[in-house]
Design brief:
This protein has helices at residues 8-37, 50-73, 80-102, 108-131, 137-142, 144-164. By secondary structure, it is mainly alpha-helical. The mean pLDDT is 84.
Length: 173
């Protein structure tokens, strides 16, 4: 068999055509790869607002207190040891809230209400502590009104703080 002879002009045309095809097909790939080298900006992270920081500590404390006071009013009402345990847990929740709350950086107008809340909560803690030392259900029942008054006294600055932070009032009273 004979060897096929390729004309040099045809060879140059084929080479140019191949080169053009390679360049045309590489252009989109080059463009796509160019974006890979560019650094991607991380998603914007915003600092939590004072309201968000407040809610992060208030919501778990409120759930815990609601549970303790609900048990104290119903299933544990006739069981001194259980009622005292509910009061001790409520006291612990109150202390934890106060410690966390005092660490918050709040706008100046909210600071006044914050100090009022801590004072009211400390007063409730003192009363709650006294109630845990009662020896009878009768003593506990006699002090239920004092505990309700202490709870109401805490709600006043809570409502003020929530208003000052642009939050709705608490869902329970």
């Amino acid at each position: 068999m004979g060897r096929a002879v390729v004309h040099p002009v045809a060879l140059r045309r084929a080479a140019r055509l191949t080169g053009t095809l390679i360049l045309l097909s590489a252009a989109p790939l080059t463009s796509a790869c160019a974006h890979v080298d560019k650094p991607v900006a991380p998603p914007a992270v915003t600092a939590p607002t004072p309201a968000e920081r407040y809610l992060r500590i208030a919501e778990p404390s409120n759930r815990r207190l609601e549970l303790d006071f609900d048990r104290l009013a119903s299933p544990d009402r006739d069981h001194l040891a259980a009622a005292r345990a509910d009061l001790r847990d409520a006291m612990s929740a109150e202390r934890t809230f106060d410690q966390d709350f005092l660490r918050l950086t709040l706008p100046t107008p909210v600071e006044v209400s914050a100090r009022e809340l801590v004072r009211a909560n400390e007063s409730r803690i003192t009363l709650t502590s006294a109630l845990t030392r009662h020896d009878s259900l009768g003593q506990l029942r006699r002090d239920e009104q004092r505990l309700a008054a202490a709870n109401a006294a805490v709600e006043v600055p809570v409502r003020a703080i929530r208003h000052e932070l642009g939050l709705p009032p608490p869902h329970t009273s």
